[in-house]
Amino acid sequence: MAYPMADLATLADLADVVGAAVVVGGVAFAVVQLRQYRRQREDTGAFTVLQQWADAESLKALDAVYALPDSAPAEIVEAANARGEVTKIYNRLELMGMMVHARMLPISTANEWAGGAVRVSWRKLRPWIEGKRASIGSERPGEWFQWLAERFDDLPARDEKTGAHVAHRDWKP
What we know:
Low-confidence stretches: none
Distance between the termini: 63 Å
Number of helices: 7
Radius of gyration: 26 Å
Order of helices and strands: HHHHHHH
Structural class: mainly alpha
Helix content: over 70%
Number of strands: 0
């Protein structure tokens, strides 16, 4: 059976429209999937950070860093690090910086959760880290910890006197 040319042209036009709709739908689906993947990755990053800080040992290590004087000399830091508590915090903040840089952890979440710890720890440990760098001739030790502390300088610090129950009282689910 022969089809009139007008019918074939109409079918071709219809096929073009359907093809375009399939492409647009595919792109929309891909965008949704990418957003979901990014959100899942950020959630995983946030959970990892929370796990790292949510035990008594980590909090004890943070207390050891907080007890140091600002710009603590290397020998004082080394004495406080006898049980590896300073190194534990240093390594966790280094990892957090890497995770923020890789966009695995939103900087806003990192700042809310550990902004104070990062700022205080950098203020206390900076000379010790710079001494490590000088002793080995490399800028690598503490690079991500410093990077994170410097990024936090651009963000507002959390008001340490105001609790979350007050600061976020208008939050709605």
